[in-house]
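Appendix C. Worked example: Carbohydrate ABC transporter permease
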Amino acid sequence: MNRKLRLSSATLRKVEGSLFIAPWVIGFLGFIAFPLVYSFYMSFNRVKITAGGVEYSPVGFQYYREILFADGGLLYNDLLPFLRQALMMIPVIVVFSLLVAILLNQKFIGRSFFRVIFFLPVIFSTGQIIQEFITQGEGTLSFVQEFELGSYINTYLPKAWAAPLNSIINSFVLILWYSGVQILIFLAGRQTISTSVYEAARIDGADPWETFWKITLPGLTPFILLNLIYTVVDLFTFPSNPIISKVNTTNYGLSSALAWIYFMIVLLFLGIVLLIFSRVTKSSSGAK
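Step 2, the predicted output written as structure tokens:
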């Protein structure tokens, strides 16, 4: 009798777990998996919408060849400058988020207020609002225009790197404004480090600089990786992303092929970030 009860309770837990996860599975299959498979199918077809329905004409790898080889300007002219810009923006956002999270973890008057201030833009700022700010030239640091840093950058840096760097500087405030989620992740990660470790370090005579490098930074390593992944994905779907605008065209086959190529590039970029991060962590642990 007890065995039957144990089996029935175990089965009941499985059923409850399945019911809890069922909405996510249904949503994933209906709203993510099916559109992905459908767009992959359209990338090999010329899609034409008529009064009688949707017509498909197989074209094989024609669109992929056009994007990658025949008409490289459709992808490379905008993608390469954006990749250079992303390489600069990722460390800026991650380092800024880490420093702000450490400051917000300190005990001071109005700490909760400042935490809300840094996270509010994530809630209220939609992609269209951010894009409108960028279009109007908002987000520029005042001293950049005052000291004409843009002209110095154009003079001393190659044009391929000067343009992305100037773009970052001209919207620097908005970039930092878009760091709310990363700050929240670092703040949660900082609170996982026990205060007793810091107390022991202070007793041993460690100063705040040594404490940061020996305790805080190693303890936040998993959260740094998480923020790197999140920042890469966030940047590649940023409102000012030039590739996203080219995906939304009436040529559904070509747009689908471009979207899938862009998806592969994002995965490759993530792989490079993970590889560099693993090499850096291994070298730092070996040095210790």
